[in-house]
Amino acid sequence: MKKGCLSVLLIAFSFVFVNAQSEADTVITKAKANKWFKKKEWLNGAPLKPHKSINKEEFARQYRINKAYWDKAFAFLKEQNLQTIAKGKYPIDGDNVFASVTEDPSKDFDKTNWESHRKYIDVQCVLVGEERMGKWPVAEVTSTTKPYDETKDVANYTAPGKFYNIPAGTFIIFFPGEAHRPNITPGGNKVVKKMVIKIKAA
Fold first, then answer.
1. Which residues have C-beta within 8 Å of that of residue 151, sequence separation ≥ 6?
2. How far is Cα of residue 41 from the mean position of the Cα atoms in its chain?
3. pLDDT per position as a tens digit, 12-62
4. At what angle do helices 56-65 and 2-26 cross, to 10 degrees?
5. CA–CA dist 178, 162 (Å, integer)
6. What is the CA radius of gyration of the chain?
7. Integer CA distances (angstroms), 196 to 23, 95, 170, 193, in order
8. Which residues pair with 144 in a beta bridge?
């Protein structure tokens, strides 16, 4: 009887220990995330610069969980001629990773909207031109103007926002929980060539 109890306790302890280790593996400190980010090994030679606003801790967490998705996305960026790549949609890894390339004039502020996604992460890459984009936590938006549509994986908001000019050769990442407002003109409504890579969120 005692041996049976001991075996049960050992199995239970092992289960808790393994689970605790699994949880610890997904917890990344700010210092570790910054160190990992600065090395840029994850970039895999893709010829773009990451924007300073990227949430490094969340990026490190998502990358650790779905490394294969991110590696395929950055490999795709490395393999393409980003100056001449044609407009259109590009499959990379089924429903897990895919891209679209657009080439359109940037818009006046009031012609753009705040949005967020739950299923996918946006990696927005400015290839030619310059675009202004806003970012703000979904938890701090002023109001929801369109509730989340699961089919389209989008919700719309009003929000104060923090805004950045994104020059050519730069990418910015928007994770679930980060409302964003892309496509804004920094002036002149000039044509912007952009690639948006969608990566399934962990």
1. none
2. 17
3. 444 444 444 444 455 789 999 999 999 999 999 999 999 999 999 999 999
4. 130
5. 11
6. 20
7. 31, 14, 12, 10
8. 157
Token pair recorded at residue 117 = 């996604």
**pTM for the predicted model, two decimal places:** 0.86
> Which tokens is 49 given?
């610069």
Joined together, the tokens standing for residue 51 give 């924007």
- Do residues 52 and 79 touch, judged by C-beta distance below 8 A? no
